[in-house]
Design a protein that fits this description.
The protein is α+β, with helices and mostly antiparallel strands. Helix 5 (about 175-190) packs across helix 6, helix 12 runs antiparallel to helix 13 (about 415-430) and helix 16 (about 490-510) packs antiparallel against helix 17. The termini are far apart. It contains 18 helices and 18 strands. The chain has helices at about 55-65, 140-145, 155-160, 165-170, 175-190, 190-200, 205-210, 220-230, 235-250, 325-335, 345, 390-410, 415-430, 435-450, 465-485, 490-510, 520-545, 555-575, and strands at about 30, 40, 70-75, 80-85, 95-100, 105, 115, 120-125, 130, 135-140, 250, 270, 285-290, 300-305, 360, 370, 380-385, 390. The strands form seven sheets. It has a four-stranded antiparallel β-sheet with strand order 15-16-17-18. It has a three-stranded antiparallel β-sheet with strand order 5-14-13, with no helix packed on it.
């Protein structure tokens, strides 16, 4: 524990407290975690827990050690409100935070169709089972006996005769949001400790007044709570609960599979954590997160440093894996997370030289049409080489045409036709780095892995050599952009590094000249060595990134399991 006058001795319970410099000491007076007395002394590791004396810190350690991480929360940042900030220097790959949610509710954002209110699994009209008490949809007997539904809204729905039409419940963002707000408000009496923790989160009241919400109707939520449910709750408090849910929830269904979509056993929930928040002040994230427990419902978030993070540096995590242009990204941050982002990436018309939003200039053929004001939601687009310009509506029209053509590329009968169609769109409308082209390349990588055999490489045949070349080429191109916009450790780079190593490994195994029973010249030996060194570097980094996934329901976990088998196979099969 640290105190400004330095009179307190260090407390190193289980080596969890780490010496820190005085430059980041909080200046405000806080309450002791044990006795509520005012104090400026605090835990050196996280700077978030305050104590009046060393004895109280020791007494509180059994509780605090589960929430003692090298970050602190800044509540009243003038531009972004609530921020996570590093409380010490963090190294790449270091775990920043691990915590369990304080609220779990059916997903309020993604199109999941009918959702089990008990375990949040996706359902269909044929698999949904009415709750024996209230009639709302569940997945089966287990959730009917004991679940989040039975302990929350079920009794209320039964007593108030609030009916559900399971067919109409599908894709009803409004209905699921109303249930989420209800579960939150039930904590006021049932779990006042958790309710107080929720109230520490930002409800974005002032910002929400400036942004039209096209997904949810707040008046309908208030009517549902006060009239249908008959809860005597002030409208302002309902507004607060809605804002907390709207702006702070993580979606477990954000994990769209790299090859296959989420299975029916995966729970699609909205979860709120006491500390972890999205998306941060910088659109080039310095950290990423993994939500675990999507199969058993025991959710936990693990946050990892993507790069080295300096003491006092704000922590930013991306809310999505796919790469998108600035004008779309800023719109999502404003309408979903209530942030008017003005970070360096959003302010740069070239997007750090990647030009992922820009169009090719159809007049001079060599310039890029850049947003004249990247911070505007509807900027004019001007060529950086000639005087050509187009309106934002014209740009959107061009993107829509290109998007339709790129979607048809994915649906071609062969990979060769898909690639040729994509290159045609790239030559005529877009360019190789445009975010629509990048997203199409990711889809093609998915398709290549599926064609070759994502989990099996023992039966690879020689006629896939060209496909492997495409996989390697596309992966390297995607990584050249991702290394700029998503540097370091993150899920996107981990998946792409997996694709790259897969292509390199299988091409080596398919090359008869590299097998141990083949004669080798000096030049062939050099080629072998270079390929193996490249493979080793890529596999090592891919494993370092993917190893954070310990949840068997995630595709990253399955990738890691396959990758470790391929590491062994490469060592046994290839002779240097």
């Amino acid at each position: 524990m640290e105190k400004r006058n330095g009179n307190f001795a260090d407390f190193d319970a289980e080596d969890k407290t780490i010496p820190r410099g005085p430059e980041s000491w909080p200046s405000e007076i806080q309450q002791c975690k044990v006795c509520d007395n005012p104090t400026r002394s605090f835990c050196k590791s996280c700077s978030s827990a305050f104590y009046c004396c060393k004895d109280h810190q020791k007494a509180h350690w059994k509780i605090h050690k589960n929430e003692c991480f090298p970050i602190r929360v800044v509540v009243n940042d003038p531009s972004f409100g609530r921020l996570m900030v590093a409380s010490q220097d963090l190294t790449q790959g270091q775990r920043i935070l691990e915590e369990v949610p304080i609220l779990i509710t059916p997903n309020t954002r993604s199109e999941n169709g009918i959702t089990c209110l008990g375990c949040c699994k996706k359902l269909t009209l044929t698999t949904a089972v009415p709750c024996i008490r209230c009639g709302w949809p569940l997945c089966g007997v287990q959730c009917d006996m004991e679940s989040l539904h039975t302990t929350n809204e079920c009794i209320i729905f039964k007593e108030r005769a609030i009916q559900s039409s399971m067919g109409n419940l599908g894709n009803s963002y409004q209905t699921l949001c109303e249930i989420g707000v209800l579960r939150m408000l039930l904590l006021i009496e049932r779990e006042p400790r958790l309710w107080k923790r929720l109230l520490k989160l930002d409800s974005f009241k002032q910002t929400r007044k400036q942004v039209a919400d096209k997904m949810f109707n707040l008046n309908s939520i208030i009517c549902f709570i006060r009239q249908e449910v008959s809860m005597d709750i002030e409208e302002d408090l309902i507004d607060t609960a809605f804002g907390i849910l709207r702006g702070n929830a993580f979606d477990t269904s954000d994990y769209i599979g790299f090859i296959d979509c989420c299975s029916d056993s995966v729970r699609c929930a909205s979860v709120i954590f006491p500390t972890a928040i999205l998306p941060g002040i910088n659109c080039i994230p310095n950290a990423y997160y993994s939500i675990q427990g999507r199969q058993d419902g025991k959710f936990k978030i693990v946050c990892i440093a993507s790069v080295d993070i300096a003491n006092n540096e704000p922590i930013s995590m991306s809310y999505e894996d796919d790469l998108t242009g600035t004008f779309l990204r800023r719109r999502v941050k404003e309408t979903v997370f209530y942030q008017n982002c003005t970070c360096k990436l959003c302010s740069d018309p070239t997007e750090y030289g990647t030009y992922i939003s820009s169009l090719k200039c159809t007049k001079c053929k060599i310039g890029y049409l850049l947003a004249s004001n990247p911070l505007s939601l509807e900027p004019e687009w001007k060529c950086n080489n000639c005087k050509c310009s187009i309106t934002h509506l014209k740009m959107l029209d061009t993107l829509q045409k290109a998007k339709l053509k790129l979607q048809s590329c994915i649906n071609q009968t062969t990979l060769e036709k898909s690639l040729e169609s994509m290159r045609g769109v790239t030559r005529t409308l877009l360019h190789e780095n445009h975010f629509l082209v990048l997203q199409t390349e990711i889809e093609i990588c998915r398709r290549i892995l599926a064609v070759i055999g994502f989990y099996e490489i023992k039966n690879i045949i020689s006629d896939v050599s060209r496909i492997l070349e495409n996989l390697i080429e596309i992966s390297q191109h995607l990584l050249s952009v991702v290394n700029v916009l998503r540097p370091g450790y993150n899920r996107t780079r981990g998946r792409l590094l997996y694709c790259l190593q897969f292509g390199i490994l299988v091409s080596i195994l398919n090359d008869q000249t590299l097998q141990e029973d083949q004669p080798s010249t000096e030049s062939m030996a050099i080629t072998k060595k270079m390929k193996m060194e490249q493979l080793g570097r890529v596999q090592k980094e891919a494993e370092a990134i993917l190893s954070v996934e310990v949840d068997e329901s995630t595709e990253e976990y399955r990738m890691l399991k396959t990758l470790r088998g391929e590491l062994k196979l490469a060592g046994k099969t290839i002779h240097l």
